[in-house]
Amino acid sequence: MSLMSLKSGTDIRGTAAGEKDKIQLTNEAVRKIIRGFLRLTEEKTGLKPAEMTISVGHDSRVSAERIKNCAVRELSSGGAKVLDCGLSSTPAMFMTTVLWKCTAAVQITASHHPWDKNGLKFFTPSGGFEGEDIEKVLKYAEEEEISESLESLPDRSEKRDFMSVYAEHLREIIKNGIKGGSSEKPLQGFHIAVDAGNGAGGFYAREVLQKLGADINGSQFLEPDGMFPNHVPNPENEQAMRFISEAAVNSGADLGVIFDTDVDRAACVDEKGREINRNRLIALASVIALEGNSGGTIVTDSVTSDGLKEFIEKNLGGRHHRFKRGYKNVINEAVRLNSEGINCPLAIETSGHAALRENYFLDDGAYLITKIIILFVNLKAQGKDLNSLIADLKEPLEEKELRFKILEENFKEYGEKVIEALKEYAKGREGWTPANDNREGIRISLDRNHGDGWMLLRLSVHDPILPFNAESNSKGGVKMIIDEFGEFIKAFDRLDLSVLP
Amino acid sequence: MTSNDYRKVSMYLANIKNGMRDSFGDIYLMYEKKVYFLCCKILKNMSEAKRMTVDIFDYVYLQAAGFRDAAVFEKWLYGVVGSRCRRYIIDNHPEMFGDYIDTDSPEGETLDDILASDADEMAYYPDGIEITVDMMQITDNILSELPLKLRVAVLQYYFSGLETEEIAAGEQISLRALKNRLLKGRNRIKTEEHKFTEMGYDAQGITTFLPDILSTMAQSIVIPEDIAASVTGKTGINCMDRMKGGAPADMRSSYSDSDDTMYINTAGAKNGGNFVTTHYAVDRGNRKEKKEMTPAVKVVMAAVAILIIIAGTVAVVLAVQGGKKDDGSVIATGDTTRATTMEITTKPTTERTTETTTETTTETTTASTTETTTQTTTQQTTVTETTTETTTQTVPVITPEPEGGNETPDEGDEDDENGYVVEGGNFHFNLG
């Protein structure tokens, strides 16, 4: 198996548990990858391994311990000082490079993917490894030969509890952000339920909220369990959101919070169980980010609603920069805009990845929720709630996503051909208006007679798929949009059109 | 997982993924007994196991579409059972974790070595073993008496087939601690196997063939029908198998007139005052094929059996008359050297025999010169509703390990919820 096949965007990911002969992240593979990582880190930092301090953490997956064991032993034998941080969130591992000045950090996680998967993410103080860095790591890994046994390698790692340090960091942020409350228990009198989905986010309930005086009754699935026996820890998952909605309502919480497995994403629900995620979450995060950044630019992915654009630009006075799907894409775009002198305080995706400039553009679910809680408490003191801030956000009545599988081997070329054809098809078509601020695929607004909404067709980065999204402000509008689109797409016989309703 | 099962489950998962949700009913049927069995053995409480089984399948219904690989799905399912049961016990019965403390195993003994020697022992059974009712009952008892932590490790390894890393992660312990638990659990089973074997019971090979025995126990378990009904209600998918007979409402009658299944009640250990029973249905599929006997042979066999019983009875009478214990009390049939006994009784309901197996063991000693008793036992098990005799087989009770510290010996008689009478620590199961 080529180790290159383990590249997944800016991560390394593969099967790590289950049937033995299907495991891709074997001990040997992990050891080679870690050696490749060490070599690249040496290049990036100019430091020899003996001068490096590298932290290693993991989420709750069943294969975490095994992979961590390989990582710490390889790093130790390579000469680096290794800090074994145990169960950690992904953003926390980046923060070891800030708060503990680690040379680099390794997080063993596969985010919300199934239980038998695992992966590796790498950080330096400048941020997470990019796609080309991952390619280099894997290229170097393939050049490695493993001759000695794992057991013969020394484990000179030091066990360190960084999550306590990180939790204290978040507590301080909350204490400093809340106006006029008790300095030590500023969340006294507030009831916040947390659903960690048996991932790594359970610390937030006990180590952050409860220690600040919050009532966390109703919190659930706080203990890590790599089988995810209750629901998939994914704020985009309908079932997961239903769990936190019910927990918040049943326990009488003021706010419900949900994290994904490695806590780089979050969402919340209000006291009535209404979801604050996707476009609503982006709207709320924009309110937070634009405070003190009047006229600032919010970078989002491409599938955000028209109502969100209107909200950011008309209600908040900011600018909406609709970019591409993929959290790394939006973050890098935000960094680029800032480097060009454009005030861009937030990069955020509908998936819940939110990266604030003030927090190193780190997509940190716990940090986002921290900011939301500060806002929530301050609003309560004024007799207001979170929904009042986003009451003017116009939300679509209907939405739908279809995914067209490309049956052609050269799927990129074929997919681009379809998109170009749609651009041509849309020109001059009555009721169809291609968006002029779209940067991924083609986005077309449709008037009241043709669906009263918008559609977007784009090409998936890695997979032979053409995702199609549609939203409408009218009942039956999405069906109308899809019917009109169907007239166009059915001409392409190398697409799986069975997904068309 | 057999390749056949792998193909079936893969197909069902693919169907579900493609929107054919009804295939969840097939998944349910494939795993209902296994999940219920595992819940019963971990929780040691049938009503809690029922509720847990329904909840688990409700969750599986929601997640099944996310799986493609049948083996990955199965491991995940067993992992979820372990996780949910563990969480339930923490929340509701924390005392079950008891005073068991993880300690290292003796020097020089590693799990890998022991498992390798177990595998080597297979060579002594070139034809495998017949998994008898006795074997299942003894295994059930041994398992029930293991402390929770060891029991879960054993079940997840030998029954669920999870890897040690997977079990360790699920139990939230180190791999080393898990291996120690597994080793200790296995060693206890081996010790009990030896004890039973030396006492003449059909226990040899339990440790070696533990996965097969557990699998047979799971296949044989009688599953309450309302589980399928509840899962159907929650998911909206028909999980009721109309072809299945289901258990008779009254489990104390061991034979039914209408089918060829024998229901056997076995006892687990006491758990907080509730007797835990597990009901197995032993049918043709669990036994080796026996040759059909001609009517003439059956008559001769019956006559021989009657003569043996008469001879044995005479010998017992002579023994009783002539044999006394050191303290002057009379040695009586049925005396054992253990302070507590458990009896399991099998009983026929009709005379119609279509297939009969008869095993006869006779131990005879003279009462005057030795201290052993004369006892003739005939055990007859059938797969149809016929035997000609009632027999009693005595199985010693294993002294339970302290678990939770709240188990106290019985005092006097008490009726448990299933109508089994306990007399001063002796368990008798009267069927019918």
Rg from Cα of chain B = 23 Å
Which outline of chain A best applies?
globular
How many beta-strand elements of chain A? 22
Classify the helix fraction of chain B into a percent range.
Answer: 40-55%
Shape of chain B: globular
User: What Rg of chain A, in angstroms, do the CA atoms define?
Assistant: 23 Å
Mean pLDDT of chain A: 94
In short:
The complex is a heterodimer of chains A (501) and B (432). The mean pLDDT of chain A is 94.
Key attributes of the depicted protein:
heterodimer, A: 501 residues, alpha/beta, Alpha-D-Glucose-1,6-Bisphosphate, Chain A, domain 3, 8-stranded mixed beta sheet, 14 helices, 22 strands, 19% strand, globular, B: alpha+beta, 2 domains, 5-stranded mixed beta sheet
Write the layout of secondary structure elements.
The complex is a heterodimer of chains A (501) and B (432).
Chain A: E1 7-8, E2 11-15, H1 27-45, E3 53-58, H2 64-77, E4 81-87, H3 90-99, E5 104-108, E6 117-124, E7 127-128, H4 131-142, E8 158-159, H5 162-177, E9 192-195, H6 202-209, H7 238-251, E10 255-259, E11 266-269, E12 275-276, H8 279-290, E13 297-300, H9 306-315, E14 319-322, H10 327-339, E15 346-348, E16 354-356, E17 362-363, H11 365-381, H12 386-389, E18 398-405, H13 411-426, E19 432-434, E20 442-446, E21 453-457, E22 465-472, H14 477-489
Parallel strand pairs in A: 3-4, 3-5, 4-8, 9-10, 13-14, 13-15
Antiparallel strand pairs in A: 1-2, 2-6, 5-6, 6-7, 10-11, 11-12, 15-16, 16-17, 18-22, 19-20, 20-21, 21-22
Chain B: H1 3-17, H2 23-43, H3 46-63, H4 70-92, H5 111-121, H6 133-145, H7 148-159, H8 164-171, H9 175-198, H10 210-220, H11 225-235, E1 262-267, E2 277-282, H12 295-322, E3 341-346, E4 356-363, E5 375-382, E6 391-396, E7 413-415, E8 421-423, E9 426-429
Parallel strand pairs in B: 3-9
Antiparallel strand pairs in B: 1-2, 3-6, 4-5, 7-8, 8-9
Helix pairs in contact in B: 1-2, 2-3, 2-4, 2-10, 3-4, 3-11, 4-8, 6-9, 6-10, 7-9, 8-9
